[in-house]
Amino acid sequence: MSILRLEPAFKDYLWGGNRMRERFGFKTDLPCIAEAWVLSAHPDGPGLLPDLGGLPFEEWLKDAGKEAAGEHCGQDERFPVLVKLIDAASDLSIQVHPDDAYALEHEGSAGKTEFWYVLEAESGAGLYCGFKREVTKEEFAARIADDTLTEILNRVPVKKGDSFFISPGTIHAIGKGILLAEIQQNSNITYRVYDYGRTGADGKRRELHVDKALEVTKRVPYKESNAGEHLAESAYFTVDKAELINGGYKGRAGEESFVHLLFTEGRGQVINGNTEAEYSPGTSLFLPAGSGDFMISGTGEVLVTRV
Question: Which residue among the candidates 5, 192, 198, 205 is catalytic per the annotation?
Answer without folding.
Answer: 192
